[in-house]
Write a structure and sequence with these properties.
Layout: E1 2-6, H1 9-20, E2 34-36, E3 43-45, E4 50-51, H2 59-66, E5 78-79, E6 122-123, H3 128-131, E7 142-143, E8 153-164, E9 167-177, E10 190-199, E11 203-214, E12 219-236, E13 241-242, E14 246-254, E15 259-266, E16 276-302, E17 305-330, E18 342-368, E19 371-398, E20 401-407, E21 424-442, E22 445-459, E23 469-470, E24 492-505
Parallel strand pairs: 14-23
Antiparallel strand pairs: 1-12, 2-3, 4-5, 6-7, 8-11, 8-24, 9-10, 9-14, 11-12, 12-16, 13-16, 14-15, 16-17, 17-18, 18-19, 19-20, 19-21, 21-22, 22-24
Length: about 500
């Protein structure tokens, strides 16, 4: 017998690779970047770039503007990384862009030798020659520099290492010592699949992508998508087993007795029963994804902090699946039936939850040097469409020939495969919170670690909506009709939370 808790390690590795390759074009509050004003909205300049108002960008005009002939053109607004004084400025070397020194002769003509240490194209200042005084070592050239570009796009990617709330169901597969019935009211019986908070709760890997555009300094639009890998739990006999070591069964409450009973899968020497060998498999899986479209508007800002109002559209998908399959083969016929008689029972319960609604909340960020701290709090409000499907099959084989086959297993809330009787729409709210700490360890690269939490107050889960109360003669050959007492569907809540790991590259 095998019991497995499955974590998708390949998906975890993929999520880590996605995180390592993430990129952002948004302004992350870099303390090494300054803002300059040109009479309109503030713009962002990178070090080594120059900002001009409407000017003639020809070499002569720019050189004259830089070296003192102020009457020829408008002055530059700012040189990022350079020093500007009241007199003619002496350019200082910029990050990774030092000024080249002439190594030739010809200062009196303004031609500093046409030979430059940097080996690249530089513009000459027209007044250089006469002011050198024959010392060409003091004749300096000014590099041609790019114009400033404004950052208005962002894209981030994160790896998610989250844990989803453990889910509950009634015991579905039980075992006991050989010779003892695997029924819930028999001492020694243990549950090997099912039970209270027995499904899920393990680590699930996933990813989250956020991309958007700032339409102005105060307003932007964006979209977000995140997905968690399947969280699954399973148990299996690993093939045909007999009851020599343990007895296995599918427990239920028999309305004919009335008392606890079990469908015998494998047993030897259980009083009042023939011997059986058989197999079983059971699995539960949960999938979650989300898609959002939102707008953000600046509410507050100051030195090193900003708070935005967030609002938009939200969509969630939560799918829960539960399947149980068993085969019982009779090996003795002392009490009835024939050796080789076989009973196959399968059940499949599926629930789908589709949320469509809106979101509103706040996002705040504080910057201190290379560190930044961000919080996101919001609530999703809207309609949760809940769909329930339950199906199965009972097949009885005698003498190698299928004698009876009946649609429907033994766990579904009635015959629901072709009906929408249990489908409902519910108003649901889902609060969400996220905190994130980031460090800029290189000029354009930041690493972040965060924590996320989200809670849905009304979801439909498979394990909460099964009915293992029925008549025992429905699992004999020929079978009687399955007579389950009426059972109402049950709604539940669900949450997921965990660690976020991200890498952000500014460009």
């Amino acid at each position: 017998m095998e019991t497995k808790k499955t974590t998708k390690w390949k998906l975890l590795a993929l999520a880590a690779m996605l995180s390592a390759g993430s990129a952002s074009a948004a302004d992350q509050g870099n303390s090494d970047i300054n803002q300059y004003y040109t009479g309109a909205a503030p713009v962002t300049a990178e070090e080594g770039e120059i900002v001009y108002d409407d000017v003639d960008y020809s070499a002569d005009n720019m050189a004259a503007s830089f070296y003192g002939d102020e009457a020829q053109s408008l002055q530059p607004v700012a040189f990022v990384g350079d020093h500007q004084g009241s007199s003619v400025p002496t350019p200082a070397p910029m990050m990774n862009d030092p000024y080249a020194m002439s190594t030739g002769s010809g200062c009196s003509t303004g031609d500093c030798g046409n030979s430059y240490d940097m080996g690249s194209s530089y513009e000459m200042a027209s007044s250089c020659g006469s002011s050198c005084g024959g010392d060409c070592g003091k004749c300096r050239e000014r590099p041609v520099r790019k114009m400033m570009q404004k950052h208005d796009m962002w894209m981030t990617a994160e790896a998610l290492l989250w844990f989803t709330q453990a889910r509950s169901t009634t015991p579905l597969i039980t075992q006991n010592a050989t010779g003892a019935a695997p029924e819930l009211d028999v001492p020694g019986t243990t549950t090997i699949f099912g039970g209270d908070e027995s499904l899920g709760g393990d680590l699930s890997a996933g990813f989250r992508i956020d991309i958007g555009k700032n339409l102005s300094d105060d307003f932007g639009v964006g979209g977000r998508f995140w997905w968690l890998s399947e969280s699954s739990e399973s148990a299996s006999s690993g093939g045909i087993v007999n009851g020599a070591a343990n007895s296995f069964g599918r427990p239920f409450y028999d309305t004919n007795i009335p008392s606890d009973n079990s469908i015998l899968i494998a047993n030897t020497g259980v009083a009042g029963s023939d011997d059986f060998e058989g197999s079983f498999s059971a699995e539960s899986s949960l999938d979650i994804y989300a898609a959002e479209a939102y707008a953000r508007m600046k509410m507050l800002s100051g030195s090193g902090f900003r708070t935005d109002l967030i609002g938009g559209f939200s969509h969630f998908g939560i799918d829960d699946t539960l399947s149980v399959n068993s085969t019982s083969i009779q090996t003795t016929d002392a009490l009835g039936g024939l050796v080789g008689d076989r009973t196959d029972i399968s059940d499949l319960i599926e629930t789908e939850n589709r949320f469509f609604g809106g979101q509103i909340g706040f996002e705040s960020q504080i910057n201190r040097g290379k560190w930044s701290f961000k919080t996101l709090t919001k609530v999703h409000l809207g309609n949760m469409e809940q769909i329930y499907r339950g199906t199965g099959l009972r097949t009885f084989t005698t003498g190698g020939v299928p004698a009876d086959s009946t649609n429907g297993g033994v766990l579904a809330l009635g015959d629901t495969f072709n009906t929408t009787a249990l489908d409902e729409d519910k108003f649901t709210f889902a609060p969400e919170a996220n905190v994130k700490l980031a460090y800029q360890f290189r000029p354009n690269v930041s690493m972040s670690v965060g924590y996320s939490f989200i809670y849905w107050d009304d979801v439909l889960l498979a394990g909460d909506n099964i009915n293992n109360v029925y008549n025992g003669d429905a699992i004999t050959s020929p079978p009687a009709a399955l007579a389950q007492p009426a059972s109402e569907r049950k709604d539940s809540s669900l949450y997921t939370h965990g660690i976020d790991l991200g890498c952000v590259i500014d460009f």
